[in-house]
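User: Teach me something about this protein's shape.
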Amino acid sequence: MHLAQSELILNTDNSIYHLNLLPEDIASTIVTVGDPDRVADVSKYFDHIELKKGKREFITHTGVLNGKRLSVISTGIGTDNIDIVLNELDALVNIDFDNRSIKPNKTQLDIVRIGTSGAIQKDIEVDSFLLSAYAMGFDGLLHFYDSNAVQLKDISNAFTLQTAWDKEKSTPYVVQCDNALADLLTSNRIRFGLTATNIGFYGPQGRRLRLAIPDANLNTKLSAFKYKDIQITNLEMETSGIYGLSKLLGHRAVSMNCILANRVTGSFSKNPQKATNELIEYTLERITSF
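Assistant: First, the predicted structure itself:
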């Protein structure tokens, strides 16, 4: 299958369009962060950095830590950006740019998100670490792909029923993390949860400044939802897209969350930079041990 120029868009140096990267620029283990400034917060721990590239909000550093080659890439905020980043990362390893064709033998990437998040369960402490065992997407991204095989519809169906979900909103979808990769990142310091990925930061997460929202009890409904022993634990804006596209493309993905806020208690981290750096250090130590 030959990919047209309008579908596989390359820059003049043959790099992928948005990320501005060549296939040799990335490692097979990739850390994603939302904030472009956080890329340096991760790569400062590398023993050496071999590459720094950037375009728009997509900044990439590739280097080596404890003998393991790693890349850290900023995605920006939201699953619309995740759609770009995941598809272009996959293209870098699984599409032949010269022939504009899909490679017969696929390469699997390990993708670990390090991000910040807000808890919606009272017992989740600020500054704690949470691994997203599941992600529930309110963003609609996965519905633009043939994705039924990777969705856990028993959970999403139970959610829409219990919350009387507004039909004018996108149908929620649920995807699981990669369990094998999650096992490598697990310790007694890590809590597991169901992470809700929202389409925005204010109204979609139940925040009200000057604009009214149609359901003032949205977060209460989210925190009250329960399916078997699964509850929604925290809110953020990327994980469902990462999990969904990674599953579809054959990659392994896990999202690591530093809980900076608790929406139930109204508390916020007294030192968010310190807490986030501790999660970065923890995750890099686990990544380089396998």
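Now, about its shape. The mean pLDDT is 96. Residues 79-94 form the longest helix (16 residues). If you'd like, I can walk through any region in more detail.
User: That's plenty for now, thanks!
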